[in-house]
Write a structure and sequence with these properties.
The complex is a heterodimer of chains A (90) and B (566). Chain A is 59% helix and 4% strand. Chain A is mainly alpha-helical and 90 residues long. The relative contact order of chain A is 0.23. Chain B is an all-alpha fold and 566 residues long. Chain B is 75% helix and 0% strand. Chain B has 23 helices and no strands. Chain B has helices spanning 15-36, 42-47, 54-63, 68-81, 87-90, 94-110, 116-124, 126-159, 163-212, 214-224, 228-232, 238-241, 246-268, 270-277, 282-313, 315-323, 333-341, 346-382, 388-415, 417-443, 449-469, 486-511, 547-564. In chain B, helix 3 (54-63) packs across helix 9 (163-212), helix 7 (116-124) runs antiparallel to helix 8 (126-159) and helix 15 (282-313) crosses helix 16. The radius of gyration of chain B is 23 Å and the shape is globular. The chains are: A mainly alpha (90), B mainly alpha (566). Chains A and B meet through helix 1, helix 2 and helix 3 of A and helix 1, helix 9 and helix 18 of B.
């Protein structure tokens, strides 16, 4: 994205980290809420503690995205982008 | 859409839900700030530097369309019509997306144009270009305003915030992340939004299915409510099309919805195509709509199913359906289900998902608008040959202006809801002839510039004529000469526009002078060497990365889905 001289990693701006962080945090919050969800609230969702289960699901997805970004980082190529330099065609 | 009376749908949000919503906004703004660091040229701002991987642009491709209108509208259709609603996805979207990736994307990406109207200009000159760019830009402002209004309305109904304050706050948030980060920020947020929406709707669907006793239980309950086969099998979908004859209904679905309307929308709408243009290579650009088609196939299960469940579980929806009440607004079905089933915690996720989809819809309209405005209108017709920095600045100003105008349109939408609906129908009429003109232009080297704009104009007029002769398609403008209304009428209008466009284009081409063939390389299929449409590294692609193979798999899967829900 940026036109630096050497190839570099997208790092935290890698969308997978962002997705992983948000969904993971959501998972954590909802999971903890699930541990304290009242019986009335559980009954609302037809007896399923959906906070707990959805929380676990989201946490797993979040961690999955984090791992994916960690294991296969995006390397931003160093070569200049010729399209950007090209004058608009008329 | 008209939303329910105040209070009836107020959700019991507590601090956990607000925390979840606040977290979402923090991420949205954070993305804008981070994306700003990578914006140095206008191509960065408008096309994300053409650097994004295909799965990102592919998800953004469908997320740009997975706005509020889609989620609320399709779950409403699910509640009202049942399974036949899947046609909007499996007939009305997936085939066109695959076609865009395989056939049309090489022209768009390969010719290095920066917008769909710009392709029009390169192929046909300024006449057709001006028609296309102007109608597109105006339509985007209108739709952005509608999205913004619905967003504010939802916040107002669900959380009880003041409508005007929600309107302005939402506009400021969208404005800040697009002016900061341009298309990258918009796309990143769309991808993020996709996951938040899935995180909200998938658990909702599962809880709902649990409640009605699985899909079998849902079918039993729908049958028990007296809506048997028509709502449980996808064909012939007479309730959806409003066409009584089953044969005509199927023809209407396949040609009207599946061919003319959906190809017109998906292959020429720059809001979506812009996402694919931001890819890193020609094959990645081709892959984005194709990759997007896979999740698109399964969106019905988390959008239409909750609607169908709401129709048997949520008392308001169920009783309205039993009475056949005409005044009931099915657009709220999803909200009723969320209110009835989700506990605090998941409730916050659901609210965040809904807000996300409204904002992403608006951001998509605005980021497509600022590109077309800056490149296709300002740079082409008004102030030419300035530095790249200048156009980047124009883009930022256009974004600001568009947001302000969207607030204005939102206020108009609040007071004149019907007019907005009809205007949207009207703008829909531009799409069908556009597709006809593009596809002729790409495959027929003789087609002339005069043919292009006369075809576009007469096709659009034909659609409007059908609308005027029909019943209630364009409100009081419709004279009701023949009794065609609803979906059947839009299918006919689109079909007429398509046929008239082709006939006029062919007729005019035969009496006008075609352009020199040497000027059309990269723009017309027969005049473009195959090598132009290939990347140097195309040979290194694995089988699952070749667009045609992927599209083939997608086509087989959508046929199977159609058969399962026959």
């Amino acid at each position: 994205m940026a036109e630096n001289e050497a190839p570099h990693r997208a790092g935290l701006f890698d969308i997978r980290f962002i997705i992983g962080a948000l969904i993971g945090l959501y998972g954590l919050i909802v999971l903890i809420t699930g541990l304290f969800t009242s019986d009335a609230q559980v009954a609302k969702a037809d007896g399923l503690n959906i906070n707990l289960w959805a929380g676990i699901g989201m946490l797993v997805v979040g961690i999955g995205f984090g791992l994916w970004a960690r294991i296969r980082p995006i390397v931003v190529p160093a070569e200049p982008k010729q399209e950007a330099a090209e004058p608009p065609a008329h | 859409m008209v939303l329910a009376a105040e209070g009836q749908l107020r959700l019991d949000a507590n601090w956990v839900d607000y925390l979840i919503v606040a977290l979402y906004f923090a991420f949205v703004i954070g993305i804008g700030v981070m994306a700003k660091r990578s914006v140095s040229t206008s191509i960065d701002f408008f096309l994300s530097g053409r650097s994004l991987p295909a799965w990102v642009t592919g998800l953004a491709f469908i997320s740009a369309n997975l706005g509020a209108v889609e989620i609320m509208g399709m779950s409403a259709n699910g509640a009202q019509f049942g399974i036949p609603t899947v046609h909007y996805f499996w007939i009305g979207a997936v085939p066109a997306m695959l076609f865009l990736g395989v056939v049309m994307m090489p022209f768009y990406y390969g010719s290095k144009v920066r917008s769909v109207p710009e392709f029009m200009r390169r192929r046909f000159g300024t006449g057709a270009h001006l028609v296309n760019a102007l109608s597109f830009a105006i339509a985007q402002l209108l739709i952005a305003g509608i999205n913004l209004f619905l967003l504010a309305k939802i916040v107002n109904i669900l959380l009880g915030w003041n409508l005007y304050i929600s309107l302005v706050v939402a506009a400021i948030i969208v404005l800040s992340y697009i002016t900061l980060g341009g298309l990258s920020a918009a796309i990143y947020n769309e991808v993020l939004q996709f996951f938040v929406i899935v995180a909200a709707l998938l658990p909702l669907t599962l809880v709902g299915l649990h409640k009605v006793g699985g899909y079998g239980g849902l079918k039993d309950k729908i049958t028990a409510a007296g809506n048997g086969p028509a709502q449980l099998s996808s064909w012939p979908g007479t309730n959806l099309t409003g066409i009584d004859s089953p044969v005509l209904s199927v023809i209407g679905l396949v040609f009207g919805l599946g061919f003319v309307l959906s190809f017109g929308y998906w292959t020429t709408n720059f809001v979506e195509v812009q996402r694919a243009m931001a890819s890193s290579s020609i094959s990645a650009a081709q892959r984005s709509p194709i990759i997007g088609a896979f999740p698109k196939m399964f969106v019905p299960f988390i959008v239409i199913f909750p609607g169908m469940i709401a129709a048997v579980v949520a008392s308001e929806v169920a009783s309205a359906k039993a009475d056949g009440s005409k005044s009931f607004d099915y657009n709220n079905s999803l909200l009723y289900l969320i209110r009835d089933l989700l506990p605090n915690g998941m409730l916050g996720i659901a609210i965040a998902g809904l807000l996300a989809s409204f904002m992403a819809g608006m951001a998509a309209n605005i980021s497509a608008f600022n590109t077309v405005f800056s490149y296709d209108l300002w740079q082409t017709y008004i102030v030419k040959e300035r530095s790249d920095d200048y156009y980047l600045r124009v883009g930022r100003i256009a974004t600001f202006a568009a947001t302000v105008i969207a607030i204005g349109t939102a206020l108009i939408a609040r007071n004149y809801q019907n007019i907005m609906d009809y205007l949207q129908t009207l703008f829909g009429f531009f799409n069908a002839p556009l597709f006809a003109t593009f596809i002729l232009g790409m495959f027929w080297k003789r087609m002339t510039a005069t043919a292009a704009w006369t075809g576009l104009v007469s096709g659009t007029l034909a659609a409007i004529a059908v609308g005027v002769l029909g019943t209630d398609v364009l409100g009081s403008l419709s004279t009701g000469v023949w009794s065609l209304s609803g979906q059947g009428a839009s299918f006919t209008a689109a079909g007429a526009a398509f046929v008239v466009d082709i006939l006029v284009s062919v007729a005019v081409t035969s009496v006008t002078q075609p352009r020199k063939e040497s000027e059309l390389r990269g723009l017309v299929y027969s005049l473009t060497p195959k090598a132009d449409f290939h990347d140097e590294n195309e040979g290194a692609l694995a089988w699952y990365q070749t667009p045609n193979t992927l599209a083939g798999i997608g086509l087989v899967m959508v046929v199977i889905l159609n058969i399962i829900f026959w």
